[in-house]
Specification:
mainly beta; about 100 residues
Length: about 100
């Protein structure tokens, strides 16, 4: 299971980025976490588009964001067979 996502927004005068960080998956007997997939939506409740896959670290920087938009994110763990976990909590951020 994925822990809570913590979003940090960093912006300068020309570009915007969203840094996503989350707690690593809890190890369970018989379950091997291979990585994480990150999903984003511009609508609360989705639909969500996969923007990163097979991440091995519990963080990601989204550089494809625009000013004055709100983005919604979820993260899913992926096992070695490619099966995804249920989604993490939904976290949103509005880009200035």
């Amino acid at each position: 299971m994925v822990g809570a996502i913590i979003l940090i927004v960093k912006a300068d005068s020309k570009t915007h980025t969203v840094s996503l960080k989350w707690n690593p998956a809890i190890k369970r007997p018989g379950v091997s976490v291979a990585g994480y997939n990150v999903y984003r939506s511009t609508q609360p409740g989705g639909p969500y588009e996969k923007i990163a896959s097979d991440l091995t670290s519990p963080n990601y920087i989204d550089r494809a964001v625009s000013s004055r938009k709100t983005y919604y994110y979820i993260v899913r763990t992926v096992d070695r067979a490619g099966h995804e976990s249920p989604p993490s909590n939904v976290t949103s951020v509005t880009i200035p």
